[in-house]
Amino acid sequence: MNALLKTSEGIRRMLETVARVSGWLLVVMAAVTCFDVLARKAGLGVPLTKLQELEWHFHAAIFSLWMGYGYTINAHPRVDSFTEKLAFRRKAWIELVGCLLLALPYVALVAYYTVDFVATSYAVGEQSESPFGLTHRWIIKSIYAAGIWLVVLGILSVLARLIVFLFGGRSEAEVNLQIGSTTLEI
Amino acid sequence: MLDWLADNLALIMFATMFFAIFCGYPVAFVMGGMALFFAIAGSLLGVFSMIGLYDVVLRMWGGVAADPVLASIPMFIFMGTILERSGSAMDMLKATEVLLKRVPGALAVAVMVMGTILAAPIGVVGAAVVTLSVIALPQMLASGYDKRLAIGTIASAGTLGILIPPAIMLVVMAEMLATSAGSLFLAATVPGFVLSGLYLLYIIGVAIVKPDKAPKLPPEYGPQTRGEFWTAVWRGLFPMTALMVIVIGSIFAGWATPTESGAVGVFGSMLIAALNRRMTMPMMNEAIVSACKSNGLVFLIFLGATGFSYVFRVLGGDELMLSMLLKFGIDTKWEMLAFVMVLIFLLGFPFEWIEICLIVLPVFGPIMMRYDFSDHGVAASALMTWFGGLVAVNLQTAFMTPPFGATLFYMKGTAPPDVTMTDVYRGMYPFVALQVVGLALCIYFPGIILWLPRVAGFLD
Which of A108, A173, B107, B229 is surrounded by the fewest CB atoms within 10 Å? Predict the structure, then answer.
């Protein structure tokens, strides 16, 4: 059980590091986009198509790398009008069933398909549809694919904590399981 | 039996999802899990091929990750979190109060004006309601305001954010209805101001008829000399108003895409923070984490909903839904519009806007497209813009309707302990009634929604 808990915490830390670092891409994205706008208005001879494609490349990376971490910190919205008053143990059981039957099978299948998706892109040397666009499309596609794999890891991390809590006889505080009511911050 | 099951699988899927979602598990995963479950059921019954789910990877890539318009969502959220965390939003509220000191119900009017302007940059309901509530509620209660009037004002002012551009909800809706984000921004602007106007009339009316519910500010409140007065107004109000004009104006004028104007907004809000000497590392870190968290959850829901709506469509869900409604006698265009509006309103009790946008709009958008509203002054090319505008107003109402409106929980969460949930509910009723009036006006006079997009040349 100890090893399981440690693994779970390890995964969460890894997801956190990836998320924290990739968060600064927001600033980079804003800077690149502003530069694009200014360069276009000033009529500078910069590769505008490349810059514009770069904008959504950042967008893809930012959300991909935060989805999995979000689950480990219970950021994803739930409809809990009927379940919020349940005992914590009950909620943990629901979460366990949800992880095993809903989240894991779906996300793992999608993640499995992304491997082929990236491999095809790499094999054909995919480029932008525009002749002036970015090359090496497989790079951003693998970040996107990695993001979906990180969701799988996030689910596994929560699952490990759930098992330790439900079957290992540890207390709520010790397991640091973050489930139950969230407030949507958007 | 098996044939019946195979034929009606999509409807069973839709119904099961609405029950499953109440189990309190993250909505994104419930939708994804349902997609897989019914994909397997469909393939066992011979009406679905499992490899079709590969499509989810492609759609999530092509329609979401590589989408230059959805790329504006992280920018708008980031701009809002910077303004909120750096305290610029609070400066603005104080300045508005000072400016409106002599108006009846000054504090409430200031909150409403502020909600209308701040809504735009914050653009995300939770943040706006929490900010307004934390800053303004204690002050309103201390100056003798009626609890319920104060709560109703703050909740409805904060909720305007999902309607007034650049609201991220409109970006998502535009994507789902296959119309331009710019035209939806324009479409929602006038209804947003109409609602804000209705609220203001109500507040000022109450303040005049029952002054004890909304007492005047004492003359010694705020700066006393003319110089101090203008400094406060200038520092608090001017930078934010300028920022909003630049961000929204550049989209409307067609100078910049939503993503570009969002990026300019991010730098503008950083500049305002720097001018106020609040541009610090901890502030930026907080703003980034909070923005990325909100952004990540929006797109995880996309991941689940993409699978759900794909499987639903392949199982023939659109046709089934339409034929079932016809069977129930909903066949004229007005019955259909009324049905969709009531459905969205009811769904708004338990669900957030994002789930409704991602599940209901892809199903009912195409159904609405079959009808001809040209005798009502809505040409076929303008239909999706009008429909989108109506859904936006409707969803905003749903947000503040007891007992489950999301706004109400934010209110309760930030209000002082002696404010009960009953106070929150009672406070909302007059504002919900005004909201329904606003929605009815938008349905009866399509011009409220369509005038601005027409003037700007988005529609003919």
Answer: A173
